[in-house]
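(Protein data)
===
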Amino acid sequence: MDSSQDPLESTRGLLAGTAVLRHGFLDVLGESTSSEAPTFAQRAMNSPFVATVYERLWRPASFYLASGVTTRAEQRRAATVLRLGSAHRLLDVACGPGNFTGPLARQLPDGGLAVGFDISAPMLTRAVLDNSGPRTCYVRGDARMLPFADETFDAVCCFGALYLMPEPFRVAREMIRVLRPGGRIAILTSYAGQRAPLRSGLTAAARAIGLTMFDRHSFVDLFSSAGLVDIEQRAQRALQFVAAGKPR
């Protein structure tokens, strides 16, 4: 494979700044750390142990309980909604160990590139080990300031992470910014649309470990106000899937 097709070099060409190769992924943060006190959930995502068990045990079991949807079914839905058969660049925000980045990359056409983006070095180290391929590259950075130019990607997604983030709506706006006209965006996040007793219990439990529960309007309204079209939302127990397109 020549350098023009090397996913690392292709991704370097997309970055708005310098990056250091570290454990197989590109790092735009270096040794910098956040001054914010992380929650229990955020600390867990930065744990090497959690990174090891997340893809095979924690994520499949917890998300099936929360939604009733298997990981394989989630991946098929994502590939369909994002229209990956005609996408050339995919950005997977908060990709973790690449459990979606790798499988979705295989749905891209020849020459396609899937960039997995996360702030956790242990997660990205795991992603490089378990979910690398000729169409994948992983980048460490802060999703509140995605290091890419406007309209860089044909598809952008974030599955199961926005509720962990200190500024989730800022991250969502960044995702929209780097999406090309005609591109597709999809998120899977928490859902607090249940009846009052259950909703109150879920919200309190989530708050205790540092998670945010979003209502049915949060991201639909954000997408609509940003000018996105063809917005669809599916609520599944404690999770919601929201997808939309950016007008050409």
